[in-house]
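Can anyone check this?
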Amino acid sequence: MEKKKNKYNVSDLSKMFDIHPNTVRLYEKLGFIWQAQRNKNNYRVFNKLHVMQIKVCRSIFGYPFTNRRIRNSGNEILWAIAKKQWDTAKQYTHSYIKIID
């Protein structure tokens, strides 16, 4: 699945995380992961940082017991990460853990 120079396409990520390719696109659209670069044929090209961001998404949204409060708290984490607001993301993560604890 890993491509040359640690580059991934939508299909690679969907297989890696066992999710639908549209889920990857949705995460990008919602701002949970950074916008992917585009290659010459306009296909998305993702990197290792996108892989890490999707891991966080799957950790937050992969639980069957989520409710609105948990999901909203998870959204705040993801949006902060996507904006590179690391301290804010850390604070939201602590809040998220308190909610699910």
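Reply from J.R.: I decoded it. The mean pLDDT is 88.
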